[in-house]
Amino acid sequence: MHNTAFSTRERGSLAGTGIGLRGPHFEQLLAAPSRVPWLELLADNFLARGGLVPAQLQRIAAQFPVTLHCVGMNLGGVDALDRHYLERIRAIARQTDAAIISDHLCFTALNGRHYHELLPLPYNDDVVEHVAKRIRQVQDMLEQRILVENVSAYVRASSTLSEGQFIAAVAQRADCGILLDVNNLYVNQINLGTDAEAALHALPIERVGEIHLGGYEDKGRYLLDAHSRPVSDPVWELFDKAVATLPEVPVCIEWDNDIPPLETLLAEARRATALQSRHRAVA
Fold first, then answer.
1. What is the largest CA-CA distance in the chain?
2. Cα–Cα distances in Å, from 262 out to 62, 241, 259, 269, 275?
3. What distance in Å separates the CA atoms of residue 156 and residue 257, rounded to the nearest whole number?
4. What digits encode the pLDDT tens for the residues 56-88?
5. Distances (CA, A) of 164 to 129, 141, 188, 199
6. What is the pTM of this model?
7. CATH number of 8-282
8. Percentages helix, strand, coil for the chain, rounded to the nearest 5?
9. Handedness of CA 97, 115, 200, 191 (dihedral sign)
10. Per-domain residue ranges of the chain
């Protein structure tokens, strides 16, 4: 196992449970920044150079530590990496002094066509090498390490590695960090019959730099990672097991659809913080 941890220094001033910044909460949060310790920005929403975007970023960065969460790196794709896109991400990271840049362990485009979906990859050694090479190139362009996030899946690809083994191998070969999405592990367990706890145990914990929590929709035959509901009880239970060994890792509450009042997200954040605090007390 590679012993290069995703360090506190790389996480910057992040601590506790932040939330994903969404438009309806923008002014409320800026008016009372003490309500949340940090914010995750969907970087692709801030790529425009003109209009209100630069001013919005300046206001946010002046009051909050931030992370950048991306959907456009296409880490698992075969198309050439988009240098212009990565240059814009690097510029935003510098403007906001972002503590973390992250994207997903998936592919999002093929032959120049963007699917606007996070499409899962087969778990095998060849894909590990392919993705790790692209991540190393991305990190060179951004001039910092990134986190890669496990994604939800709805069909099973032919694989020779488990989900946890695949994530661990990519992180070690690329020398990157891991953004652990606990909800996605649970969704895959229900949808595909994988073992979420086994995936947790397979991860190199020193590389986990952030945790995501969100809510799924139960569609009857499958679970949809919709980020439109409170975190479910089974996901809270899995999170509790995860933070037993990760009590200091920053956590982010995601809510992208059917966005509720800000207080709903803050209540979820308080619950996550309480669980982590309990484990810190006995560590």
1. 51
2. 20, 27, 9, 11, 21
3. 26
4. 899 999 999 999 999 999 999 999 999 999 999
5. 16, 27, 12, 4
6. 0.93
7. 3.20.20.150
8. 45, 15, 40
9. positive
10. 8-282
